[in-house]
Amino acid sequence: MASKNKKLLQKYRVPLGFLFGIIFLIFARPTTDLMIIGGIVAILGLMIRGWASGHIEKNRDLAISGPYAFTRNPLYFGSFLMGIGFSIAAGVWWIGLLFAVLYLGIYFPVMSVESGELTEIFGDKYLEYAQKVSLFFPWFSTYSSTKKRFQFDLYLRYREYQASLGVIFAWIVLALKAFFIN
Fold first, then answer.
1. What is the distance between the alpha carbons of residues 20 and 146, in angstroms, rounded to a whole number?
2. Does residue 137 sit in helix, strand or coil?
3. The model scores a pTM over 0.70
């Protein structure tokens, strides 16, 4: 049942993302100051995602190094920060609220299902890790991370650079709206 719910959420999260993107572009009222502040937040999220991608080998090894020592879901947290950054840049308070509700409403159930899957794969090792490290919001944990270092080949394998390209493209569109349409 949980896997079915995850697949349903995964199926609808992309169309919902595009719908939110259209709403975002229609109602956004960006200004230079808000784009700078939002850009800083979005870049921080992008950096967290990039850092996390160089520490994970999906379903092969439990990721506990790098940002995984502070949150079990740094990729989702980084994406959340990117969305908050864009919401700030939009200059419309309800866009940020809508984003947060949609994002957390979709991804918290997905994280819950994924926790169950990781428990099946890694057993007690994951359960010990989950007791000490926050599900989503980073926190200084008592979890002892490994000495594993960032691996650039993992960053490339998971094509995390595409997130950077997406942010650049979206920021250009937002900038065009700020300077030519508003």
1. 38
2. coil
3. yes
